[in-house]
Fold this sequence. Notes:
Blueprint: H1 3-51, H2 55-64, E1 67-71, E2 74-78, H3 84-94, E3 99-104, E4 108-113, H4 116-130
Antiparallel strand pairs: 1-2, 2-4, 3-4
Amino acid sequence: MTAKKKKKGKGLLFAVLILIVLLVLYFVIDLQQKKSDQEAETEETEDSLRAHTTARLSRWCAELLVTAEWAGPQVVLRTPAGAAQLLAGAVDDAMMPGVLGCIAGDDTVLVITRGAQVAADVARHLRALADPSARA
């Protein structure tokens, strides 16, 4: 191999390595930005949920909510037998942002939200309302 070809090959390799480093940096910065945006959105959602929390919702969560689990854009709330209607009414009346509505059975409430992140935030918020240590 001639000296020119060796230099050209090293120059090409160097250019490829720089391109790879730039791509990695781009993806790392993009991931950090997305994480930061998601944290800000979650914080904003929690503040908004707190602002829409009524005394009735707090009371019924504290007294009736057994579990709150989410899957996709849905939250499933479990209550003692016969109490689902009370809790669903309190959730509906609170008009929480991102909550489209509720369907209540005997001991289960299905809350439909606009998305998985909203569902996770709503479930976390309602569990916090039901936590005896969080009550004053």
